[in-house]
Amino acid sequence: MKTRAVRVYGKSDLRLEEFELPPLGDDEILASVVSDCICMSSYKAAIQGADHKRIPDDVAVNPTIIGHEFSGEILEVGKKWQNDFKVGQKYSIQPALNYKGSLDAPGYSFRYLGGNATYVIIPNEVMEMKCLLPYDGDAYFYASLAEPMSCVIGAFHANYHTTTGSYEHKMGIESGGNMAILAGAGPMGLGAIDYIINTDRRPGLLVVTDIDDVKLNRAAEVLPVEKAAKNGVKLVYINTSNSDELLALTDGKGYDDVFVYAPVAPLIELADKILGRDGCLNFFAGPTDPSFSAAFNFYNVHYVSTHIVGTSGGNTDDMRESLAMMGSGRLNPAAMITHVGGLDSVIDTILNLPKIPGGKKLIYSHISMPLTAIEDFESMDNPVCKELAEIVKRNNGLWCAEAEKYLLNSEL
């Protein structure tokens, strides 16, 4: 079977090509890819080429398919896995395989498996590590968002608090406590807000800061404070970098859990200042500079038990939690998506990702379409885009299952 895919050959060297997939092995699965979300990690991989820890050294002669936040449909199942997976099943993939200690991952390391392709071969190690996850939802893009949402979920599970008088650590956020998400009005922040106000373990106070009023207003529109209040969470959106203002919202007590969603040293230092006793600072944002650092108050580490954690991605259980919550309607991360495009828009999108405003960029692998902001559909002459504008307008401005189905069944 032929596939079209965007492959990495070296630093900033991405190519959209058509080539033949090899015959399917007894321990492999053939699948289509319907949707993939472009991640900043893919930009880093594209820019670094073989210098990236997950990209093979011989990528110049054995290129790999890029993209790791993808979903599609199983087309053929090798003999080994026929009791576990069925033709026609929708799927998502956890890219952090950790197979025999290797860093190899879909979207970075495999010649025939990645999200920016029409058809792929899923190798044995994905199934061996239980990283091929069936998905029962009504839209593929939700399953593509399961991987970034698993990163959000993993961070909440990674936080911990101490037990006075013992060395036992209590994993997870402080239930009913004070939480802040700094620089939290971006796409990943929106996913975090949606998760934390809808999961079972919730804070009593959730403060979301940003220095962009447009982002804050949009966040408040799609995730209103009234919705959080129904679930027992006092949600506050605030444009500030003032520690006194933030502490005042807790009556001076400080925050049990603080998440930093941008790799900016002053933001980390602000987070440190607003931690309460036994407060946990989670550095969620991934810096590109290996020497990135910030000041941290070690007096408070010693005397008031403040501490810091960091996570890079979620695990398979986090991804299953994400899929289950989306499948039950408790989680709707569609607010993360601001742009939609086809396979032919992938190269420019990845290589210019830091310069493109907005949130997640959603790619549909079997269509040809320039990357387009959802808010721009209404102003375009194309009748398909006009109809998409009407569909998302009926859905509070968000991409949705109806929009996906219409786009996949239309001719642009």
Which descriptors would you attach to this protein?
8-stranded mixed sheet, 6-stranded parallel sheet, alpha/beta, 13 helices
- In helices, the fraction of residues equals 25-40%
- Please tell me how large the radius of gyration is: 22 Å
Tally of separate helices: 13
Overall geometric form: globular
Proportion of β residues? 15-25%
Overall mean pLDDT stands at 95
How many beta-strand elements? 19
Low-confidence stretches: none
Distance between the termini: 25 Å
Structural class: alpha/beta
- Biggest sheet character: 8 strands, mixed
Please give the structural blueprint.
Elements: E1 2-10, E2 13-20, E3 29-38, H1 40-48, E4 64-65, E5 70-77, E6 90-93, E7 119-122, H2 124-128, E8 132-135, H3 140-158, E9 160-162, E10 169-171, E11 178-182, H4 187-198, E12 205-209, H5 213-222, H6 225-230, E13 234-238, H7 243-248, E14 255-260, H8 265-274, E15 275-283, H9 298-303, E16 307-310, H10 316-327, E17 337-342, H11 346-351, E18 360-364, E19 372-373, H12 383-394, H13 401-408
Parallel strand pairs: 11-12, 11-14, 12-13, 14-15, 15-16, 17-18
Antiparallel strand pairs: 1-2, 1-4, 3-5, 3-7, 3-18, 5-6, 6-8, 9-10, 17-19
